[in-house]
Amino acid sequence: MDKKHLIRVSKRLSRHLRHAPGDIGITLTSDGWVEVGTLLAALRRDGLPLTRNQLAEVVEGNDKQRFAFDESGSRIRASQGHSVDVDLALPGATPPGVLYHGTVSRFLSAITHEGLRPMSRHAVHLSANVETARTVGGRRGVPVVLLVDAADMAAAGHEFQVSANGVWLTAAVPPEFLRRL
Ligand code: HQG
């Protein structure tokens, strides 16, 4: 599969596995899974015929490893980024001392007052490295990177999870744990 098509399929998977499963008539389990056969049939009906091997190619070739099969390989889900109501049931994890969040300057005054909120997603997305945060912020303009005192947050009782593709997730980051890099 060429790269362009791989990206096109990946965007469709993001849409239906994170935000709008109903658009192609599928239902996710409470922890976000759907049977591979059910997904492929729904995509085919929606004008995107795909074999199991091609789906595996998209999952493996995805730049951010956004999707994962379950252990048996019979189900697939998005590893993070949902807006639909799913509970990925990820175990709690101890974060590194600091984590990073990429944003843009127009959000800074709100963030300074109320901290980081999950907005339309389930959790605030943080990364363990500055470069990723810069890329995430850069989707919206000139990136501004915020440093999150994750160890202090954890000590204060805030919970963290890490997704299968290495994104750090937490419910919210109060302003006192944020600094501009
Ligand atoms: C901002 C992509 C005002 C926040 C990326 C961000 C990531 C606030 C935006 C993943 C705010 C939400 C997530 C507040 C936060 N007031 N603005 N209190 N708190 N914001 O897309 O972190 O390609 O939901 O700074 O690479 O940008 O989808 O979150 O700018 O990993 O796999 O509100 O999405 O991954 O935007 O990105 P998003 P995000 P995928």
UniProtKB/TrEMBL annotation:
Keyword Flavoprotein set for record: no
Lineage: Bacteria, Bacillati, Actinomycetota, Actinomycetes, Pseudonocardiales
Protein name listed in UniProt: Probable RNA 2'-phosphotransferase
Record organism: Amycolatopsis coloradensis
Gene name, Swiss-Prot/TrEMBL: kptA
Keyword rRNA processing recorded: no
InterPro entries: Ptrans_KptA/Tpt1 (IPR002745), RNA_2'-PTrans_C (IPR042081), RNA_2'-PTrans_KptA (IPR022928), RNA_2'-PTrans_N (IPR042080)
EC number in record: 2.7.1.-
Keyword entries, A-Z: NAD, Transferase
NCBIfam families: PRK00819.1-4 (NF002014)
Function of the protein: Removes the 2'-phosphate from RNA via an intermediate in which the phosphate is ADP-ribosylated by NAD followed by a presumed transesterification to release the RNA and generate ADP-ribose 1''-2''-cyclic phosphate (APPR>P). May function as an ADP-ribosylase.
BP terms from Gene Ontology: tRNA splicing, via endonucleolytic cleavage and ligation
GO molecular function: NAD+ poly-ADP-ribosyltransferase activity; tRNA 2'-phosphotransferase activity
Annotated Pfam families: PTS_2-RNA (PF01885)
Family: Belongs to the KptA/TPT1 family.
Gene3D superfamilies, per database record: 3.20.170.30, RNA 2'-phosphotransferase, Tpt1/KptA family, N-terminal domain
